[in-house]
Write a structure and sequence with these properties.
Blueprint lengths: L2 E6 L4 H10 L5 E8 L11 E4 L6 H9 L3 E4 L11 H22 L5 E7 L26 H19 L4 E7 L1 E3 L6 H6 L4 E4 L5 E2 L1 E3 H12 L10 E5 L5 E2 H8 L3 E4 L1 H13 L7 H9 L6 H5 L9 H10 L8 H14 L28
Parallel strand pairs: 1-2, 1-4, 2-3, 4-5, 5-6, 6-11, 7-10, 8-13
Antiparallel strand pairs: 9-12
Helix pairs in contact: 1-6, 2-3, 3-4, 7-12
Length: about 375
């Protein structure tokens, strides 16, 4: 008998893609997709069950289908339809608690995979150059999706202690981008003019949505020889990009805003419904965040097909052209940077395969 896999959050495009993909795996016998709303995309031959993971009914779904593998994708920072931030938090936190309670009581569940985020590390001025999976954050996230992710991981650790017989894998994804990306950061990069924090040029990492699907498939199966797919893993494409490099590659100018005024700008953008420029995103676009992917490669045995730069390039191709030609912007900014005194430019940080990073100054590059 093959695996019986239950996937939550299948109304979202990533959850739907995962369901369609794993149905082709020879080790998978049946796939059950679960969400509180019906998906607007097809799920192939998977069985869809309309169920709210915030309710105890999810336990009946596990029992009725004798599920042995659970992939929890319904941890997200963006609302699906009505409900806003309150509904998102309830699904992330209360929904995870209910799902883990159901898994704890289920005698058939043997593997749990949880989609998390590198936002659990926060973004602070005294952060290390590179976070490993065991690096404690300098400042825990105080709200928003990042705080949800911290709480979710805490509940997952408690579940792992209570059910040591279940293989638990937590995947901390960097910012997910690609042609179908619908995150707040993707909305920010789609603005005609991007507000940035004056004096800062943060380092960013991205993971391609195709690589997200590939690594989830690895995590839900039995580990290959020499690998281990239980534990917590950072997932990101190789290398980093600075925010100024991103703006040049998009051909979208930036509007540097003094740090005290950034919160007001973010509130204004949220009020008019342009983008969710939340406090946690402001901190990311101020201080940045870079994580080590050594364990992803050496322990999990996964190598992304897309680097951070290639992920961003694929995302940029899917968006409307910016106000300025990217090539012209890049040449102009490079000429300005070359004219600056040594040490004043915001040199890009490059992550090696060992997780070491050289860190440039946080001086904002125009354009």
């Amino acid at each position: 008998m093959g695996k019986v896999v239950l996937v939550t959050g299948v109304a979202r495009q990533l959850g739907g893609r995962l369901v369609r993909r794993i149905q082709r795996d020879p080790e998978v016998d049946r796939v059950i997709g679960v969400d509180a709303v019906g998906p607007g995309h097809h799920l192939g031959g998977a069985e869809f069950v309309r169920a709210d993971i915030r309710q105890s009914a999810i336990a009946r779904v596990l029992a009725e289908h004798a599920v042995d593998t659970v992939v929890h994708m319904d941890v997200t920072g963006t609302p699906l339809g009505a409900g806003g931030r309150t509904a998102v938090k309830e699904t992330n936190v209360i929904g995870t608690m209910q799902l883990l309670g159901a898994c704890q009581k289920s005698p058939t569940v043997k593997r749990l995979v949880v989609k998390s985020s590198t936002s659990v590390y926060g973004s602070a001025p005294r952060d290390p150059a590179v976070f490993t999976e065991t690096t404690p954050p300098k400042s825990l996230p105080s709200g928003g999706f990042a705080k949800d992710a911290v709480e979710v991981e805490g509940y997952v650790r408690g579940f792992a202690r209570r059910r040591p017989d279940v293989a638990v894998c937590v995947l901390r994804f960097a910012n997910i981008l690609g042609p179908c990306a619908d995150s707040p950061l993707a909305e920010f990069f789609s603005l005609p003019v991007m507000p940035t924090v004056f004096g800062y040029d943060p380092r960013l990492q991205f993971v391609h949505e195709d690589d997200v699907i590939d690594v989830l498939r690895i995590a839900l199966h039995e580990p290959r020889r020499g690998t281990l797919n239980s534990g917590t893993f950072n997932i990101a494409g190789d290398g980093v990009l600075t925010l100024s490099q991103c703006s040049r590659r998009l051909g979208r100018p930036t509007m540097p805003v003094p740090l005290p005024a950034v919160t007001w700008v973010g509130s204004a953008l949220r009020t008019v419904g342009i983008t969710d420029f939340s406090p946690e995103q402001i901190r990311l676009l101020t201080h940045g965040r870079v994580v080590s992917t050594v364990q992803m490669r050496e322990t999990l045995g996964f190598r992304p097909r897309f680097t951070t730069a290639e992920t961003f390039a694929d995302f940029a191709r899917s968006r409307a052209p910016g106000l300025l030609p990217p090539e012209s912007v890049a040449r102009a900014v490079d000429r300005v940077a070359a004219a600056l005194p040594v040490g004043r430019g915001a040199g890009p940080a490059v992550e090696t395969t060992t997780g070491e990073t050289t860190r440039g100054e946080t001086t904002h590059s125009a354009g």
